[in-house]
C-alpha cells in the first residue's frame, strides 16, 4: 500500500475533545472504580482513587461526560450536594436497581475534573426534571456573584464558580430519555435551552442537543430543520455489537470466533457511513458548519462477564477492542470538520473501558493504550492522503509542531502489510514509533497478568529516500512520528 500524504496543505484541526470520556452512575463506573470515599483503605485523594486518577492523567482526558446516560434523566442534582450523610438514598432504576447514595455529586465531579485536568460535560435531566431544576443547577455551578444558588454552593464549601464547558440537553430523548418524537423533542430542546443561563459572557456554555440514534436520519433532519439556530452541537450514539443482536447474545468480550473479530471490525467501520450521512443532512441546514456532531456514546458492547450483575455492564477488553478503537478514532479524525467531541462509553468498569478495577487492584485495558498512543493527534492538523488503502488496513495522519504522525491498524489476523508513505516536507528522523499487539486475537490484560497487551517500542519502520516504510504486523495498531 502506497500513500502520498498532503502534509503541506493540512486539513482541519482535530479537536482534542474527540478523545473524551464518559462516566455514568452505572455499576462500578463511579463507585468503586473512581470514587471510594475519603475513609476507604484504598489510597485516595478526597475520595478519588489515586491509582486510577494517575493512570487517567497519563492519557490527558480532555473532557468527561457525567452523570449519564440514562441515569441523567432520573438525576436530581440537589440530592447530590451538602453533607454526604444527609444526602438522599435513591434507587438506580436504570442500572441494576441498586441503592444510589448520592455520595458522588456535583462537588465530587468537579474535584475529579480538577485532579484529571479535564473539562466538564454535564448532561441535564429533561426527562423527569424541570426547566427550573436545570437552570438552578447551572446557577449553582457557574454563578460568580450573589444569588440563591451561588450562596448555597458557597455554603457547601465551594467559593468560586466552576466552569461548565459543555451542557447536554437530553440523552437518548428518542428512547429511554422520554420516548419523544423528533418534532416534539426539537421544541422541548428550544424551550430548555432558552432558560440555560449564561453567567460568563466570555465563556458561554456550549449546548449539545440530543441527536440521532445510529441511522435515524429523520431525527437529524427534523432537529436541524427546527432548531439549527439554537444549537452548538448535536449528539450521535452508536455502539459496536459484533453479533448485531441487542436482544439475545452480544457475544463474549474474550471468547469469540474469528468471524466475530471481523464482524466487529465491519461494525466499527459503519461509524464512517453514519457520520457521512448525518453530516450531509447537517450541511443542508448548516453549510457553514456552525453546528458540530458530538459522538457522545460509542464503543463495543458485549455480554457482561460471567457472574457479574447484568445491570452493571462490566466487560473485558481485548486486542479486538484496540483495533476497533483505532478504526473509530481514525474515522473521527477523517471527519474533523464536523466531529468536535466524542466520548467513549465508559471510562472505568463499564462497557469499553480504559481501566478495570477489582477492590484495590487496577488494570489498564488495550483500549487505554490506544488512547495513550493517539494523544499525539490531539489538536493537531489533519493530513489527507492520496492512494489506495489496503484491505483490512486503517490509517490516519496529522501534523503538529512540524512533526508528522501516522497511526495505523492492520486487522488482518494473519497477514502483515507493507505500507509506504511519501510526503512533501523534509523529515530527518523517526522521533517515536510504538505498537500494540498480542499473541492472540483475544489477548487481554487481567489482574493476574496486567501486561499482556501494552504499548511497546516498534522497530518495523524505516525513514529514507523521501519515504516512510512500515512493516505492519497482523492484528496490530502502530503509530509513528517523524520530524
Ligand atoms: O452507556 C450505557 C447506556 O447506553 C447509556 O446510559 C445510554 O445513554 C445508552 O443507551
TrEMBL record:
Q: Which Gene3D superfamilies match?
A: Glycosidases, Golgi alpha-mannosidase II
**GO terms of molecular function:** alpha-L-arabinofuranosidase activity
**Enzyme Commission no:** 3.2.1.55
One Gene Ontology biological process: polysaccharide catabolic process
Q: In which pathway does it act?
A: Glycan metabolism
Q: Which InterPro entries match?
A: Alpha-L-AF_C, ASD1_cat, GH, Glyco_hydro_b
A Pfam family recorded for this sequence: Alpha-L-AF_C
Question: What are the entry keywords?
Answer: Carbohydrate metabolism, Glycosidase, Hydrolase
Q: Where is the Alpha-L-arabinofuranosidase C-terminal domain?
A: 296-476
Catalysed reaction(s) here are: Hydrolysis of terminal non-reducing alpha-L-arabinofuranoside residues in alpha-L-arabinosides
Relate the assembly described in the record. Answer: Homohexamer; trimer of dimers.
Family to which the UniProt record says this protein belongs: Belongs to the glycosyl hydrolase 51 family.
Protein name in UniProt: non-reducing end alpha-L-arabinofuranosidase
Gene transcribed to yield this protein: abf2_1
